[in-house]
Design brief:
The protein has about 350 residues and is α/β, with parallel strands linked by helices. Helices cover about 35% and strands about 15% of the residues. Helix 8 crosses helix 10. The longest helix is centred in the last third of the chain and has 19 residues, at about 275-295.
Length: about 350
């Protein structure tokens, strides 16, 4: 049994980003494996069910794994709140199908013997462009009852869980992402929106002991990082990638300041000394390039194959395992083809 996590999918807009995960890993999973989406699930967004929504819900239900999600801010809360409720993982969940469940705000669920605190919702900074009850709902901000429930649930487990899954991040973490230039590159810290959900999380952080805190919402992907407080735990922002939870990761370094370079893909490939180094330092970039450009161009293919020719079969195997851990499924599929050719 394995628990995978990923960021916002926005319903029919980005749900197809799960296809590489399916072909690379997901088709070999079972209903006892879980994929957890960090909010903005979005497949119940339209006022009434649409054909595209139904097709994607049917596709998700047909997958070998079980899909879980917390709510984000871009959700139709009228439809979410109307879902039938059943008890799973030790607490109430909203049921879409027997393979798709909504994890509600403020509960500690037991998933794969892990204690998991979940809390959805966030402030929409684009709400002025949205229509109430059509594309925006006040329920994006948790109620007092939900916030009290979260506090009480954590008190019941003596403020100790394995994982925290939220849509928004604590406010202190937002400031760390700002410092490291992952968000708001030109934004002054004093102008960061005071999201009430982020501020609520800041009241939990000093008391809460956890292995890792995963969150979405910001549309950035980070490595695991700390915010400089010893023993506080490890954070990670999720977006497009699907990754397995880190079972043994208990500490991490603060985020290095993100460099914004304009090197071409070929320049990166020619400068990189090994395939493993490429995955470690540029894997996310190459994976995204493969995802959106669909295929390598001539000079990029030459650079990539030059790198592959310097790589042993054992290193390619190690690179494949690294891609699985990091969720680089587009790159993983390319490496599997190379591995097959090298093995012949």
């Amino acid at each position: 049994m394995t628990l995978y996590v990923t960021g916002d999918k926005h319903g029919t807009v980005e749900m197809d980003e799960l296809l590489p995960f399916y072909y690379a890993v997901g088709k070999n999973l079972s209903e006892h494996d879980f994929l957890l989406i960090m909010g903005d699930f979005g497949l119940l967004f339209a006022p009434e069910p649409t054909q595209k929504e139904l097709e994607w819900l049917q596709w998700l239900s047909s997958m070998p794994w079980t899909t879980l999600f917390i709510d984000g801010n871009h959700e139709n809360f009228t439809r979410l709140d109307d879902l039938p409720t059943e008890k799973h993982f030790g607490n109430p969940v909203g049921v879409i199908t027997d393979k798709i469940f909504h994890l509600k705000r403020g509960y500690v669920y037991t998933i794969e013997n892990y204690a998991c605190f979940t809390f959805g919702g966030a402030l929409s900074i684009d709400r002025c462009f949205r229509r109430p009850g059509i594309s925006w709902w006040e329920r994006e901000i948790p109620s007092e009852e939900e916030m009290v429930r979260g506090w009480q649930s954590l008190e019941q487990v003596r403020w100790k869980v394995d994982y925290v899954f939220t849509h928004m991040a604590p406010f202190s973490v937002l400031l760390e992402l700002l410092r490291a230039k992952y968000i708001g590159i030109t934004l002054n810290p004093c102008h960061v929106p005071r999201d009430p959900v982020a501020l609520y999380f800041d009241t939990l952080v000093p008391r809460l002991h956890f292995r890792q805190w995963y969150f979405g919402h910001l549309h950035v992907q980070t490595p695991p990082f700390s915010v400089g407080i010893e023993g506080e735990g490890v954070y990670q922002a999720l977006y497009r990638l699907v990754i397995p939870v880190e079972e043994s990761l208990m500490s991490a370094e603060p985020l290095a300041v993100r460099e914004h370079r304009e090197e071409s893909l070929s320049q990166i490939l020619f400068k990189t000394k090994s395939l493993l180094s490429l995955i470690e330092h540029h894997g996310e970039l190459l994976n995204a390039w493969l995802e959106f450009e669909q295929a390598l161009q001539g000079h990029d293919i030459m650079a990539f194959h030059t790198l592959i020719r310097r790589t042993t079969l054992e290193e390619v195997e190690e690179a494949i395992e690294s891609c699985k851990r990091k969720g680089y499924y587009h790159l993983l599929l390319v490496l599997k083809v190379e591995f097959k050719e090298m093995s012949c």
